[in-house]
Design a protein that fits this description.
By secondary structure, the chain is an alpha/beta fold. It contains nine helices and eight strands. The termini are far apart.
Protein backbone atom coordinates (compact mmCIF):
# COMPACT_ATOMS: atom_id res chain seq x y z
CA UNK A 1 0.00 0.00 0.00
CA UNK A 2 1.48 3.34 -1.06
CA UNK A 3 1.73 6.31 1.27
CA UNK A 4 1.77 9.96 0.38
CA UNK A 5 -0.42 12.17 -1.78
CA UNK A 6 -0.39 12.41 -5.59
CA UNK A 7 -2.67 13.88 -8.24
CA UNK A 8 -4.59 10.59 -8.18
CA UNK A 9 -5.81 11.47 -4.68
CA UNK A 10 -7.59 14.66 -5.78
CA UNK A 11 -11.32 13.96 -5.62
CA UNK A 12 -14.27 15.51 -7.43
CA UNK A 13 -14.29 19.33 -7.24
CA UNK A 14 -17.44 20.20 -9.14
CA UNK A 15 -18.90 23.49 -7.95
CA UNK A 16 -15.69 24.66 -6.29
CA UNK A 17 -13.66 27.68 -7.41
CA UNK A 18 -9.86 27.91 -7.23
CA UNK A 19 -7.63 30.88 -8.03
CA UNK A 20 -4.07 29.93 -8.98
CA UNK A 21 -1.40 32.59 -9.47
CA UNK A 22 1.22 31.92 -12.11
CA UNK A 23 -1.01 29.22 -13.59
CA UNK A 24 0.13 29.47 -17.20
CA UNK A 25 3.34 27.48 -16.77
CA UNK A 26 5.18 24.96 -14.59
CA UNK A 27 3.71 23.87 -11.27
CA UNK A 28 0.90 26.41 -11.51
CA UNK A 29 -0.15 25.04 -14.89
CA UNK A 30 -0.02 21.43 -13.69
CA UNK A 31 -2.05 22.38 -10.62
CA UNK A 32 -4.67 24.16 -12.71
CA UNK A 33 -4.84 21.22 -15.12
CA UNK A 34 -5.63 18.70 -12.38
CA UNK A 35 -8.14 20.96 -10.64
CA UNK A 36 -9.97 21.63 -13.89
CA UNK A 37 -9.98 17.93 -14.76
CA UNK A 38 -11.73 17.22 -11.45
CA UNK A 39 -14.51 19.68 -12.24
CA UNK A 40 -13.40 22.87 -10.48
CA UNK A 41 -13.64 26.32 -12.00
CA UNK A 42 -10.04 27.54 -12.12
CA UNK A 43 -9.10 31.21 -12.34
CA UNK A 44 -5.68 31.53 -13.94
CA UNK A 45 -4.12 34.67 -12.45
CA UNK A 46 -1.18 35.61 -14.69
CA UNK A 47 0.66 38.65 -16.05
CA UNK A 48 0.21 37.81 -19.73
CA UNK A 49 -3.22 37.21 -21.26
CA UNK A 50 -1.85 35.48 -24.36
CA UNK A 51 0.11 32.97 -22.31
CA UNK A 52 -2.88 32.34 -20.05
CA UNK A 53 -5.11 31.76 -23.08
CA UNK A 54 -2.54 29.33 -24.51
CA UNK A 55 -2.45 27.45 -21.21
CA UNK A 56 -6.24 27.22 -21.10
CA UNK A 57 -6.32 25.97 -24.70
CA UNK A 58 -3.77 23.28 -23.83
CA UNK A 59 -5.83 22.16 -20.84
CA UNK A 60 -9.03 22.10 -22.89
CA UNK A 61 -7.33 19.93 -25.49
CA UNK A 62 -7.31 17.18 -22.84
CA UNK A 63 -10.34 18.36 -20.87
CA UNK A 64 -12.87 19.89 -23.30
CA UNK A 65 -15.35 20.69 -20.52
CA UNK A 66 -12.78 22.42 -18.29
CA UNK A 67 -14.14 25.59 -16.66
CA UNK A 68 -11.50 28.31 -16.56
CA UNK A 69 -11.15 32.07 -16.67
CA UNK A 70 -8.30 34.58 -16.76
CA UNK A 71 -7.38 37.28 -14.25
CA UNK A 72 -4.59 39.70 -15.05
CA UNK A 73 -2.24 39.81 -12.07
CA UNK A 74 1.23 41.35 -12.05
CA UNK A 75 2.75 40.79 -8.63
CA UNK A 76 5.61 43.18 -9.46
CA UNK A 77 3.20 46.14 -9.49
CA UNK A 78 1.20 46.79 -6.32
CA UNK A 79 -1.16 49.14 -8.16
CA UNK A 80 -2.07 46.35 -10.54
CA UNK A 81 -2.38 43.92 -7.60
CA UNK A 82 -5.07 46.23 -6.21
CA UNK A 83 -6.87 46.22 -9.57
CA UNK A 84 -6.80 42.42 -9.70
CA UNK A 85 -8.04 42.17 -6.12
CA UNK A 86 -10.92 44.54 -6.89
CA UNK A 87 -11.92 42.29 -9.81
CA UNK A 88 -11.90 39.24 -7.53
CA UNK A 89 -13.96 40.97 -4.86
CA UNK A 90 -16.55 41.96 -7.47
CA UNK A 91 -17.00 38.35 -8.58
CA UNK A 92 -17.98 34.99 -7.11
CA UNK A 93 -16.38 33.89 -3.87
CA UNK A 94 -13.23 31.74 -4.03
CA UNK A 95 -12.99 28.41 -2.24
CA UNK A 96 -9.19 28.16 -2.42
CA UNK A 97 -6.50 30.74 -3.22
CA UNK A 98 -3.20 29.19 -4.35
CA UNK A 99 -0.27 31.61 -4.18
CA UNK A 100 2.07 29.87 -6.61
CA UNK A 101 3.67 32.54 -8.82
CA UNK A 102 7.26 33.53 -8.19
CA UNK A 103 10.67 34.33 -9.62
CA UNK A 104 14.00 32.72 -8.83
CA UNK A 105 17.53 34.17 -9.03
CA UNK A 106 17.14 36.86 -11.70
CA UNK A 107 19.64 39.66 -12.17
CA UNK A 108 19.02 42.57 -9.82
CA UNK A 109 15.70 44.04 -10.88
CA UNK A 110 13.21 46.29 -9.12
CA UNK A 111 9.44 46.14 -8.90
CA UNK A 112 7.27 49.00 -10.12
CA UNK A 113 7.42 50.41 -6.58
CA UNK A 114 11.23 50.16 -6.42
CA UNK A 115 11.71 47.05 -4.29
CA UNK A 116 13.99 44.12 -5.11
CA UNK A 117 12.12 41.82 -7.48
CA UNK A 118 12.40 38.50 -5.64
CA UNK A 119 11.20 39.89 -2.32
CA UNK A 120 8.58 41.94 -4.15
CA UNK A 121 7.11 39.21 -6.36
CA UNK A 122 7.59 36.23 -4.05
CA UNK A 123 6.44 37.89 -0.84
CA UNK A 124 5.10 41.44 -0.98
CA UNK A 125 2.86 40.98 -4.02
CA UNK A 126 1.22 37.80 -2.64
CA UNK A 127 0.96 39.41 0.81
CA UNK A 128 -0.92 42.37 -0.65
CA UNK A 129 -3.13 40.28 -2.93
CA UNK A 130 -4.00 37.85 -0.14
CA UNK A 131 -4.50 40.70 2.30
CA UNK A 132 -7.02 42.31 -0.01
CA UNK A 133 -9.06 39.25 -1.02
CA UNK A 134 -8.88 36.95 2.03
CA UNK A 135 -12.42 37.88 3.19
CA UNK A 136 -13.59 36.50 -0.18
CA UNK A 137 -11.84 33.12 0.33
CA UNK A 138 -13.99 30.46 1.96
CA UNK A 139 -11.76 27.46 2.64
CA UNK A 140 -7.99 27.62 2.20
CA UNK A 141 -5.15 29.97 1.35
CA UNK A 142 -2.13 28.09 0.04
CA UNK A 143 1.32 29.71 0.13
CA UNK A 144 4.17 28.12 -1.81
CA UNK A 145 7.54 28.17 -0.07
CA UNK A 146 10.74 26.29 -0.89
CA UNK A 147 13.52 24.16 0.55
CA UNK A 148 15.55 27.35 0.04
CA UNK A 149 13.84 28.96 3.04
CA UNK A 150 16.34 27.12 5.23
CA UNK A 151 19.10 29.52 4.14
CA UNK A 152 17.06 32.69 4.52
CA UNK A 153 17.27 35.45 7.08
CA UNK A 154 15.30 38.67 7.45
CA UNK A 155 17.37 41.83 6.99
CA UNK A 156 15.34 45.00 6.46
CA UNK A 157 18.30 47.36 6.08
CA UNK A 158 18.66 46.94 2.31
CA UNK A 159 15.37 45.73 0.87
CA UNK A 160 15.92 47.39 -2.51
CA UNK A 161 19.33 45.67 -2.85
CA UNK A 162 21.03 49.03 -3.46
CA UNK A 163 23.91 48.15 -1.14
CA UNK A 164 24.48 44.55 -2.24
CA UNK A 165 22.74 41.86 -4.25
CA UNK A 166 23.41 38.22 -3.45
CA UNK A 167 20.99 36.52 -5.78
CA UNK A 168 20.53 33.21 -3.91
CA UNK A 169 20.33 34.90 -0.51
CA UNK A 170 17.55 37.15 -1.79
CA UNK A 171 15.63 34.14 -3.06
CA UNK A 172 16.11 32.26 0.21
CA UNK A 173 14.91 35.26 2.20
CA UNK A 174 11.79 35.62 0.05
CA UNK A 175 10.94 31.96 0.64
CA UNK A 176 11.50 32.33 4.39
CA UNK A 177 9.08 35.26 4.23
CA UNK A 178 6.50 32.99 2.57
CA UNK A 179 6.56 30.54 5.46
CA UNK A 180 6.59 33.21 8.15
CA UNK A 181 3.54 34.74 6.48
CA UNK A 182 1.74 31.42 6.19
CA UNK A 183 2.08 30.64 9.89
CA UNK A 184 1.17 34.18 10.94
CA UNK A 185 -1.82 34.29 8.59
CA UNK A 186 -3.16 31.01 9.95
CA UNK A 187 -2.75 32.24 13.53
CA UNK A 188 -4.61 35.45 12.74
CA UNK A 189 -7.41 33.72 10.85
CA UNK A 190 -7.91 31.40 13.81
CA UNK A 191 -8.00 34.25 16.32
CA UNK A 192 -10.53 36.04 14.14
CA UNK A 193 -12.80 33.00 14.26
CA UNK A 194 -12.52 32.42 10.53
CA UNK A 195 -13.02 28.95 9.04
CA UNK A 196 -10.48 29.79 6.33
CA UNK A 197 -7.08 28.19 6.92
CA UNK A 198 -3.58 28.97 5.67
CA UNK A 199 -1.44 26.05 4.49
CA UNK A 200 2.12 25.95 3.17
CA UNK A 201 3.80 23.71 0.64
CA UNK A 202 6.98 23.33 -1.38
CA UNK A 203 7.64 21.37 -4.60
CA UNK A 204 10.98 19.84 -3.67
CA UNK A 205 13.40 20.39 -6.53
CA UNK A 206 11.35 20.63 -9.71
CA UNK A 207 12.67 21.48 -13.17
CA UNK A 208 10.33 24.27 -14.23
CA UNK A 209 10.53 27.62 -16.00
CA UNK A 210 11.86 29.11 -12.76
CA UNK A 211 15.28 27.73 -13.75
CA UNK A 212 15.45 30.15 -16.70
CA UNK A 213 17.48 32.61 -14.61
CA UNK A 214 20.12 30.09 -13.56
CA UNK A 215 23.68 30.75 -14.77
CA UNK A 216 24.26 29.32 -18.24
CA UNK A 217 26.41 26.31 -17.18
CA UNK A 218 23.71 25.18 -14.74
CA UNK A 219 20.98 25.62 -17.35
CA UNK A 220 22.91 23.32 -19.70
CA UNK A 221 23.25 20.74 -16.93
CA UNK A 222 19.59 20.62 -15.85
CA UNK A 223 18.53 18.06 -18.52
CA UNK A 224 21.16 15.67 -17.14
CA UNK A 225 19.65 16.03 -13.66
CA UNK A 226 16.08 15.29 -14.78
CA UNK A 227 15.99 11.69 -13.44
CA UNK A 228 16.92 12.93 -9.95
CA UNK A 229 14.42 15.79 -9.64
CA UNK A 230 10.67 16.31 -9.83
CA UNK A 231 8.87 17.10 -13.03
CA UNK A 232 6.49 20.04 -12.84
CA UNK A 233 3.57 17.58 -12.63
CA UNK A 234 5.06 15.77 -9.63
CA UNK A 235 6.18 19.05 -8.11
CA UNK A 236 2.52 20.06 -8.07
CA UNK A 237 1.54 17.22 -5.73
CA UNK A 238 2.20 19.18 -2.50
CA UNK A 239 0.23 22.13 -3.87
CA UNK A 240 -2.65 19.85 -4.75
CA UNK A 241 -2.58 18.26 -1.30
CA UNK A 242 -2.50 21.66 0.39
CA UNK A 243 -5.44 22.82 -1.73
CA UNK A 244 -7.63 19.70 -1.64
CA UNK A 245 -6.31 17.13 0.86
CA UNK A 246 -9.00 15.83 3.21
CA UNK A 247 -6.79 15.61 6.30
CA UNK A 248 -4.94 18.91 5.92
CA UNK A 249 -5.07 21.37 8.82
CA UNK A 250 -4.34 25.07 9.02
CA UNK A 251 -0.63 25.69 9.59
CA UNK A 252 0.40 22.43 7.90
CA UNK A 253 3.49 22.52 5.69
CA UNK A 254 3.66 19.91 2.93
CA UNK A 255 6.35 18.67 0.56
CA UNK A 256 7.87 15.61 -1.13
CA UNK A 257 8.59 12.63 1.08
CA UNK A 258 11.73 11.38 -0.66
CA UNK A 259 15.29 11.82 0.60
CA UNK A 260 15.92 15.43 1.54
CA UNK A 261 12.35 16.33 0.51
CA UNK A 262 13.61 16.63 -3.07
CA UNK A 263 11.20 14.26 -4.83
CA UNK A 264 8.35 11.87 -4.15
CA UNK A 265 4.75 11.83 -3.02
CA UNK A 266 3.53 14.66 -0.82
CA UNK A 267 3.25 14.65 2.96
CA UNK A 268 4.47 16.59 6.01
CA UNK A 269 7.51 18.80 5.41
CA UNK A 270 10.01 20.35 7.81
CA UNK A 271 10.25 24.08 8.41
CA UNK A 272 13.12 25.71 10.28
CA UNK A 273 12.67 27.10 13.77
CA UNK A 274 13.22 30.57 12.28
CA UNK A 275 10.31 30.05 9.89
CA UNK A 276 8.11 29.16 12.88
CA UNK A 277 9.19 32.13 15.03
CA UNK A 278 6.01 34.10 15.93
CA UNK A 279 7.93 37.23 16.90
CA UNK A 280 9.78 37.32 13.58
CA UNK A 281 6.51 36.66 11.76
CA UNK A 282 4.73 39.53 13.52
CA UNK A 283 7.55 41.91 12.62
CA UNK A 284 7.47 40.81 8.98
CA UNK A 285 3.68 41.24 8.94
CA UNK A 286 3.92 44.84 10.16
CA UNK A 287 6.81 45.63 7.80
CA UNK A 288 4.84 44.19 4.91
CA UNK A 289 1.87 46.42 5.73
CA UNK A 290 4.19 49.42 5.68
CA UNK A 291 5.82 48.41 2.40
CA UNK A 292 2.61 47.51 0.52
CA UNK A 293 0.09 49.87 2.09
CA UNK A 294 -2.21 46.86 2.51
CA UNK A 295 -3.45 45.96 5.99
CA UNK A 296 -5.26 42.60 5.91
CA UNK A 297 -7.26 43.70 8.95
CA UNK A 298 -6.88 40.49 10.93
Amino acid sequence: MRSGFTAEDVGALTGRRFLVTGANVGIGYETAKVLAARGAHVVLACRDAARAEAAMAAIRADEPKAEMSFLRLDLADLDQVREAAAAVLAGPRIDVLINNAGVMVPRRTLTRQGLELQFGVNHLGPFAFTGLIHPHVEDRIVITASLAHKGGHMDYSDLDASQSYHVWQRYQTSKLANLLTMYELDRRLGKAGRATQAIGCHPGVALTELTRHLPMPLRYMTPLATPFFNSAARGAWPTLQAATGANVQGGDYLGPQGLGEVTGRSGPARATSMARDPKLARELWERSIDLTGVDPGI
